[in-house]
């Protein structure tokens, strides 16, 4: 017979998957001889078994195999605890608690005091000689049981309690006297009859069975599902159920209950941090009805208990090599530990605790690195909203994507120009658009945050904002902008230009009005941890950046060079835009050449600056990628302006615009396709790169030039482009009699390129996977429109993760693997990296490390995240 049940004395900490976190740790504490009330755990497999049977057949009962094992376990519990259900001298009552393999605090259900009924309440009163206490336990059971097992509205119970408190003229539950509690118990029982048509079950066995089923079912309640989705926890794990002898923190003033962290979870300070309530049960602490005392007070109130807690807590921390979150109960001066788990903590605390523990000799550097969630580092590098302010703020929407972390408040503006103008006038603004386009770049730069109604995690707004380290919420689908009216339609009403909103780029939420922020802190512990991380990783981390500020940011985080300069981002300053438009619109070859010459000079200056900032570190410069129409004007006003600038008619501008318009621009005339049809475009850019590099070389530096050709799908595209550029470079170097180290590579971002990577590898010195386009084209999901359905896909479980945020290993990952396997034998010197957004995602980085890529490249503010993830991956691979 399959064991569905383990007594606490039979399990251990390694059995998380079977016993859940709580069960495994209770077993471990029991094994270590800690004061743990007796009990047993029903496995997660029993839960999954029950739930699938329920789903398949609609039959809501526990299998006979399981009920037999429960009966045996109860008998064993009665023997070891020397108590019995309904025993008039040694009455057994139990708690029934959930506990999943991954911690999901407060998401599932718990029932306390199971075993009480009309008869046992009197036994309990007699044994404890405290009738008030007994009735207090009973009313708690009635309330929890009704709510959890029968889904009765908890407000109905609260109303009855409130009515009694009003009548007694008291504020707190614990101030109610015995008579009031007796009336409440009666009223609760009547509520069962009224609401359900049947009474509260008096039979203990029924109570237990129903409580177990309810806890199993709570695995699938809405909030648990949402929590799992947000935290990427599998739906297939199930919850274990822990049945444990009750100990009573509410049995008088020498009793109490509390929660304790072995170190401060907010600051990381190495000092016990916790609270307790005297004469109370666990939920009283959580419910916040009474203000608990700080744990230090226990030192004077119960010195022996305090010293015992202190010793045991430290033992647990040393044993688990991690900061512990402990629940304890004191029953008549006797201490019990009810739970221990790794404590949740802020980023600041996480880093400090990890580093301190190494310095205290408690853990290794490797363990410290593994202890900190890389994504948490954002909290240290970007401002966040102050928790108190956030609790009081009015939420406008939670539908947006957390596109680029940070937190900012500001006045709404609807155009990039307005963003620039108002910022220059000293205001803080949030640029709100349905979607952004490259023309908005200056306004995006000026704004404190960016909010878009459309677009996913790799939409223009998201990519650019991350590059800038700017707070951004994208794809906030329940908002819409009316550009003409300059209004923002939200589920809470219409907002106008100048209205104050707050945007949380770490959660995707938008609030009305101003929310206070707390600034970023990168302290000494952070620096220490990051130094260790860099020592441990194999994969190097570069940055995607083109502006001096971004490049400096990336180098501040010790990026090992630039993995992607998106040259098109350099075209959007007004004077440059004018020239590129002249190139696109002019009918005269001469004028077109003139336009290119001017742009070349501009670009040469940019590249010079980039190489200078890079010192001797490599910089991958990608040649022009977007379709040309992205540079053309769209609004009537702008078309008129361009016509005047270029001395042509608006009709001509419109005609050209029309000619260039594409139905699917992402699959259109872009990337290397531009160079096949307008070869002098790439010629111009490469000349500019060489000119810039030459100036820097003459200053004594050695620029490492890496030229990258985008969107290649055919060898027949790459070969002629490379041949032509190579000739141009050789002529340039000969003419200037210099040597500049350079390599030419290609992006791999089209599925076909992965399959012919051996052919491409012969024409390339390096590959860089463009996972944004590769994901888009592998799935056929538009990277700009997928936001419209991806949320539902995630909610319905069609997708487990958004593939634009985390690599789809089976599909896109497999393609990358195939590409590497084919390419390496064809060109053993080939350097391989990633420059799509996934280059900054920890899970994806682990995959890239495992398949032996040389580097990942991501936006500057993600560089530390990627560095820590690379270190974790190296440590895990070595284990
Ligand atoms: C990519 O496609 O992954 C990439 C880096 O290029 P872009 O996002 O500029 O298309
Ligand atoms: Mg691309």
Automatic annotation (TrEMBL):
Its EC number is 2.7.9.1. This is Pyruvate, phosphate dikinase. Residues 427-508 form the PEP-utilising enzyme mobile domain. Residues 17-294, 307-360 form the Pyruvate phosphate dikinase AMP/ATP-binding domain. Substrate binds at residues 566, 622, 749, 770-773. The active site is at 460 (tele-phosphohistidine intermediate), 835 (proton donor). Keywords: ATP-binding, Kinase, Magnesium, Metal-binding, Nucleotide-binding, Pyruvate, Transferase. Coiled coil: none annotated. It holds the Pfam family PEP-utilizers_C. It comes from the Bacteria. Belongs to the PEP-utilizing enzyme family. Mg(2+) binds at residues 749, 773. It comes from Aerococcus christensenii. It catalyses: pyruvate + phosphate + ATP = phosphoenolpyruvate + AMP + diphosphate + H(+). Its cofactor is Mg(2+).
């Amino acid at each position: 017979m399959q064991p569905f049940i383990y007594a606490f004395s039979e399990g251990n900490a390694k059995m998380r998957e079977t016993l859940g976190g709580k069960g495994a740790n209770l077993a471990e504490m029991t094994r270590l001889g800690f004061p743990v009330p007796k009990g047993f755990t029903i496995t997660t497999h029993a839960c999954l078994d029950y739930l699938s049977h329920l789903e398949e057949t609609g039959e809501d009962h526990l299998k006979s195999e399981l009920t037999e094992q429960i009966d045996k376990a109860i008998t064993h519990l009665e023997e070891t605890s020397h108590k019995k259900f309904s025993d008039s001298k040694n009455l057994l009552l139990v708690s029934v608690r959930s506990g999943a393999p991954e911690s999901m605090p407060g998401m599932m259900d718990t029932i306390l005091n199971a075993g009480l009924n009309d008869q046992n309440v009197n036994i309990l009163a007699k044994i404890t000689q405290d009738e008030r206490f007994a009735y207090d336990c009973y009313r708690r059971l009635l309330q929890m049981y009704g709510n959890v097992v029968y889904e009765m509205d908890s407000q109905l119970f609260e109303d009855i309690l409130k009515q009694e408190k009003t009548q007694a003229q008291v504020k707190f539950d614990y101030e109610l006297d015995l008579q009031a509690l007796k009336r409440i118990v009666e009223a609760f029982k009547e509520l069962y009859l009224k609401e359900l048509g049947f009474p509260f079950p008096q039979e203990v066995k029924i109570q237990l069975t129903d409580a177990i089923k309810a806890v199993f079912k709570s695995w699938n309640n809405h909030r648990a599902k949402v929590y799992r989705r947000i935290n990427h926890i599998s739906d297939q794990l199930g919850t274990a159920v822990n049945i444990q002898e009750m100990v009573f923190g509410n049995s008088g003033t020498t009793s109490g209950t509390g929660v304790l962290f072995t170190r401060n979870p907010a600051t990381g300070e190495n000092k016990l941090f916790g609270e307790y309530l005297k004469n109370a049960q666990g939920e009283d602490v959580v419910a916040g009805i009474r203000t608990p005392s700080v744990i230090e007070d226990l030192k004077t109130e119960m010195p022996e208990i305090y010293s015992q807690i202190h010793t045991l807590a430290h033992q647990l921390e040393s044993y688990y090599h991690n900061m512990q979150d402990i629940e304890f109960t004191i029953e008549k001066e006797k201490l019990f530990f009810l739970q221990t788990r790794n404590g949740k903590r802020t980023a600041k605390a996480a880093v400090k605790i990890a580093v301190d523990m190494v310095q205290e000799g408690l853990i290794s550097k490797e363990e410290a690195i593994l202890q900190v969630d890389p994504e948490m580092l954002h909290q240290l590098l970007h401002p966040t909203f102050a928790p108190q302010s956030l609790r009081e703020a009015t939420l406008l929407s939670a539908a947006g994507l957390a596109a680029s972390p940070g937190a900012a408040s500001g006045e709404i503006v609807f155009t990039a120009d307005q963003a620039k103008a108002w910022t220059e006038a000293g205001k803080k603004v949030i640029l709100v658009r349905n979607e952004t386009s490259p023309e908005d770049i200056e306004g995006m730069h000026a704004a404190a945050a960016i909010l878009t109604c459309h677009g996913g995690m790799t939409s223009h707004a998201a990519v650019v904002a991350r590059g800038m380290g700017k707070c951004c919420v994208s794809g906030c689908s329940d908002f819409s902008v009316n550009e003409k009216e300059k209004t923002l339609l939200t589920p809470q009403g219409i907002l106008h230009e100048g209205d104050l909103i707050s945007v949380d780029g770490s959660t995707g939420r938008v609030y009305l009005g101003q929310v206070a922020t707390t600034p970023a802190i990168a302290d000494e512990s952070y620096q220490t941890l990051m130094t260790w991380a860099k020592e441990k990783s194999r994969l190097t981390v570069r940055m995607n950046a083109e502006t001096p500020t971004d490049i400096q940011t990336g180098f501040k985080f010790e990026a090992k060079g630039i993995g992607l300069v998106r040259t098109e981002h350099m075209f959007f300053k007004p004077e440059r835009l004018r020239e590129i438009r002249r190139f696109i619109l002019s009918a005269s070859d001469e004028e077109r050449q003139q336009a290119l010459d001017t742009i070349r000079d501009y670009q040469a200056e940019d590249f010079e600056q980039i190489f200078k900032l890079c010192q001797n570190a490599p910089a991958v410069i990608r040649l022009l990628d977007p379709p040309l129409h992205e540079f053309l004007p769209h609004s009537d006003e702008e078309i008129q302006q361009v016509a005047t600038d270029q001395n042509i008619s608006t009709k001509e501008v419109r005609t050209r615009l029309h000619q260039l318009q594409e139905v699917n621009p992402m699959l259109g005339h872009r990337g290397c396709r531009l160079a096949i049809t307008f070869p002098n475009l790439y010629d111009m850019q490469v000349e500019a790169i060489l000119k810039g590099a030459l100036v820097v070389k003459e200053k004594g530096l050695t620029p490492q030039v890496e030229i990258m050709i985008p969107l290649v799908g055919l060898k027949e595209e790459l070969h002629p482009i490379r041949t032509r550029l190579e000739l141009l470079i050789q002529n340039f170097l000969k003419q200037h009699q210099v040597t500049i180290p350079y390599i030419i590579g290609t992006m791999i971002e089209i599925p076909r390129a992965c399959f012919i990577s051996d052919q491409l590898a012969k024409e390339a010195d390096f590959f860089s996977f463009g996972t944004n386009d590769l994901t888009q084209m592998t799935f056929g999901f538009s990277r700009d429109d997928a936001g419209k359905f991806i949320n539902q896909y995630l909610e319905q479980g069609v997708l487990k993760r958004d593939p634009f945020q985390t690599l789809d290993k089976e599909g896109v990952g497999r393609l990358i693997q195939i590409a590497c396997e084919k390419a390496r034998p064809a060109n053993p010197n080939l350097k391989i990296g990633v420059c799509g957004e996934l280059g900054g995602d920890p899970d994806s980085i682990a995959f890239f490390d495992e398949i032996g890529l040389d580097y990942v490249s991501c936006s500057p503010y993600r560089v530390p995240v990627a560095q820590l993830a690379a270190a974790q991956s190296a440590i895990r691979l070595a284990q």
